[in-house]
Amino acid sequence: MTILKSREVILLGAILVLVALISTRFIGFIAPKNLVNVFNDTSPLIILALGQMVVILTRCIDLSVAANLALTGMICAMINVAAPGLPVSVIIVVAVSIGAFLGAINGLLVWKLDIPPIVVTLGTMTIFRGVIFLLTDGQWINAHEMSTAFTGVPRGVILGIPVLGWIAIAIVVIMALVMSRTTLGRAFYAVGGNPHAAVYTGINVGRTQFFAFVISGALAGLTGYLWIARYAVAYVDIAGGFELDVVAACVIGGISIAGGSGTVIGTLLGALFLGVVKNALPVVDISPFWQLAISGAAIIIAVTFNSRAGRTKGRVILKSAEVTQ
Amino acid sequence: MSRTDPQAPHHVSRHIPDQLRSSLERKLKSWETLLLAVAVGIFILNSFASPYFLNAWNLSDATFNFTEKAMIAFAMALLIISGEIDLSVAAIIALSSTIMGVVMQAGFGTPVIVLAGLGAGLICGAFNGILVTRLGLPSIVVTIGTMSLFRGISYIILGDGAFRGYPADFAWFGQGYVFWVISVELVIFAILAVIYTIVLHKTNFGRAVYAIGNNPTGALFSGIRVQRVKMILFLLTGLMSGLAAVCLTSRLGSTRPSIATGMELEVVTMVVLGGINILGGSGSIPGVVIAAFVMGLVTFGLGLLNIPGIVMSIFIGLLLIGVIALPRLWVKIKG
């Protein structure tokens, strides 16, 4: 199959080896119930990484996703506190809209004012976090203040998998369709692959990047609600530093930071790889203090492998010619 | 992210870097003038906002808000001009500080502790540099990885503990004063500002840094050892992070693995605010110096008004986007 390029197969193999290694230390890890838990725990990372993938494909980066998540989640929680009777479906629509709006701010600054994405999202990242503090004065919103319907949705179980997991699966399917079956999806690749050529084929580069930020923002907003509801607590620092995990998942999954290449399946596997590493450490009795160093090392190793696999062979001809002479 | 302008064709004709020197210089000058005006404005606002502001000791205290970050920002400025970035600087501070703690616990005195801190920074910089220059990995990705790795090693060594009990004379670096209110850190900052200004603006090395940032292939063909220059820049950034770790640890008098969390983004903010192009190729050290003062004044002034740190960050974020957006908006409206 053409979708399963070698990189994805290698990554899948790495995940399977990892899981096998973990199961030699703790057999319970490969119990289906535990694997479902790992997938469920990784779901927010998967959803955010898919949004980040689109942004990175267009040669941008979105460092504001975790702050967007925290701000949107906090607003959802505040709405829930103010109007406990409001149906969760409305809250989800609100979450996606707020997230998309925050993403649109990033997108407009990049599109209309030509400000480098890393600068824009560095700025909005700190602004969004600060706004949460302004809204709440640093107060937490705790489980007992939220309605049971609000916190119940992501935890409900359908066919053995929590709703949070199902939402991640749905997003994976939707994103796979968007990237492979729509002109917008193709435009993302075109803009990142060669912006000059993209312009000549009639694609508006800035607008395409704008849409990438809106998608990333909308997914961050959705995850904001899911995160707050699942952990039943909202505060300023929630998901602090998570933006780097999200970028790392993309990079492990083979999304080229230079734009234009990468797949939905790769991103999914990249997020799962990071998720397995993080979930396995406590169960195999490794001190939690090792977690940061191990995930850092995993990122570096994965990136090194990826870049080896992805290196173009074009110039080797010249070298071998030199050698044979 | 990438060197090429994503907006492509319609821009190529009117945005060619590396030439039209006089206009580039004018632009840089106006950037620094703009920043200076912002700094003066904030200074005046501050003195109106709080009666406690215009006090020599208060102003001296305010410098600690930026001196440590600025030490790193100088090296980071060169790195960003060359088209790379180092997001692991705060993690290097954590690891350097931890190594200093280990050395201190082993019973060594201040000179060895300081050398250990600087050496640890240098080794971390070398690790980043090797991954970027030898393996050809993108620096933003490498340093996201080493950011977790370096800080992770600190957590492994320290757990949830802390190192305390640094020797009394070690406190000189972060708490000492050279003359009246002029702190040791401020003097280090000033000396580094001069050195980096000379290195970037008056030497062949500085010229090479600009050349690499504008066109790495062109730089290579004009005889510049691109990878070696980049390696030196990563070493320099590591060393400066080690130096910042010495000052910060000395000032706080203790080491925790969570030390300097999030500082990498403040350093990048300072560099970008200083007019360094995040895509590489242009910017100046005086700009970074003024940006350091601007950030220090903003946080200090807001602090005097009892505004919490996280709200200050809104102002820093708005300042960052605003200062960069305004000239572009102006050009758009004018053109």
UniProtKB/TrEMBL annotation, chain A:
<dbReference type="GO" id="GO:0005886">
    <property type="term" value="C:plasma membrane"/>
</dbReference>
<dbReference type="GO" id="GO:0022857">
    <property type="term" value="F:transmembrane transporter activity"/>
</dbReference>
<dbReference type="Pfam" id="PF02653">
    <property type="entry name" value="BPD_transp_2"/>
</dbReference>
<keyword id="KW-1003">Cell membrane</keyword>
<keyword id="KW-0472">Membrane</keyword>
<keyword id="KW-0812">Transmembrane</keyword>
<keyword id="KW-1133">Transmembrane helix</keyword>
<dbReference type="InterPro" id="IPR001851">
    <property type="entry name" value="ABC_transp_permease"/>
</dbReference>
<protein>
    <submittedName>
        <fullName>Putative L-rhamnose ABC transporter, transmembrane component 2</fullName>
    </submittedName>
</protein>
Automatic annotation (TrEMBL), chain B:
<keyword id="KW-1133">Transmembrane helix</keyword>
<comment type="subunit">
    <text>The complex is composed of two ATP-binding proteins (LsrA), two transmembrane proteins (LsrC and LsrD) and a solute-binding protein (LsrB).</text>
</comment>
<dbReference type="GO" id="GO:0005886">
    <property type="term" value="C:plasma membrane"/>
</dbReference>
<keyword id="KW-0812">Transmembrane</keyword>
<protein>
    <recommendedName>
        <fullName>Autoinducer 2 import system permease protein LsrD</fullName>
    </recommendedName>
</protein>
<dbReference type="GO" id="GO:0022857">
    <property type="term" value="F:transmembrane transporter activity"/>
</dbReference>
<comment type="function">
    <text>Part of the ABC transporter complex LsrABCD involved in autoinducer 2 (AI-2) import. Probably responsible for the translocation of the substrate across the membrane.</text>
</comment>
<keyword id="KW-0813">Transport</keyword>
<keyword id="KW-1003">Cell membrane</keyword>
<keyword id="KW-0472">Membrane</keyword>
<dbReference type="Pfam" id="PF02653">
    <property type="entry name" value="BPD_transp_2"/>
</dbReference>
<keyword id="KW-0997">Cell inner membrane</keyword>
<dbReference type="InterPro" id="IPR001851">
    <property type="entry name" value="ABC_transp_permease"/>
</dbReference>
